[in-house]
């Protein structure tokens, strides 16, 4: 990762000042990395709770899950390429849905709210798109995505469905990925990448827990196989875990 892709940001006011430079970097490089909004140690302190939730919760299957179930706290598998959110993207991962109007079972409510504020600051929205300001049936799909050790992955794609979900409420699309785990500490190979002009770039090289990867509507991105040299581990141990806040319809 080029040093110019990393932005040390102190707070939302500083983020507003750097928004133009961050967005220009995303357009040129496929992504940017924001460091400083979230504390590494505090983010890593959530990991035991996440692993406990996985161990104690029955996972829903990849298909046949209703929209109402997704609006509630749940653990769901996503295996194959027939996702209800965006068909054709092959993946192997688990998702913990934790919408902001549901019980705060992971203790991440404030983290998700901050992630929404960062997202909407970068999108230069006058009003943050918190759930109370989204027209029904839209809501913020605040969630964790868990790419298990032993081959968790997602093929390259652009967020076409998520882009469509905000067209009627905002002219801008920004996607943030908050890194709960980190490459080199929790897993050794694979992780997020972007493709720019046929070149694949590792967007997590030198990244830390608490860093935010920033994409836009043109970013072709995916997740390379996580520690595929190991047996598949569905416990969440050794997984790549990220937090997202995407407007769902």
TrEMBL record:
Organism domain of life: Bacteria
Protein name: 2OG-Fe(II) oxygenase
């Amino acid at each position: 990762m080029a040093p110019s892709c990393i932005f040390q940001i102190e707070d939302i006011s500083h983020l507003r000042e750097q928004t133009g430079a961050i967005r220009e970097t995303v357009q040129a490089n496929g992504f940017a990395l924001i460091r400083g909004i979230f504390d590494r140690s505090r983010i890593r302190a959530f990991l035991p709770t996440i692993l406990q939730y996985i161990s104690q919760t029955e996972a829903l299957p990849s298909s046949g899950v209703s929209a109402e179930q997704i609006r509630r706290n749940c653990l769901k598998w996503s295996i194959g390429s027939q996702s209800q959110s965006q068909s054709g993207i092959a993946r192997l991962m688990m998702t913990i849905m934790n919408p902001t109007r549901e019980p705060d079972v992971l203790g991440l409510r404030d983290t998700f709210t901050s992630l929404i504020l960062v997202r909407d600051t970068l999108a230069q929205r006058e009003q943050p798109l918190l759930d109370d300001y989204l027209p029904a049936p839209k809501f913020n799909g605040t969630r964790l995505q868990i790419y298990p050790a032993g081959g968790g992955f997602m093929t390259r794609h652009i967020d076409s469905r998520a882009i469509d979900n905000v067209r009627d409420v905002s002219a801008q699309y920004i996607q943030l990925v908050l890194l709960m785990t980190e490459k080199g500490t929790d897993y050794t190979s694979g992780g997020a990448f972007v493709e720019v002009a046929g070149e694949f770039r590792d967007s997590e090289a030198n990244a830390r827990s608490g860093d935010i990867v920033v994409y836009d509507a043109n970013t072709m991105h995916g997740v390379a196989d996580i520690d595929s040299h190991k047996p598949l581990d569905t416990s969440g141990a050794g997984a790549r875990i990220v937090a997202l806040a995407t407007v769902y319809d």
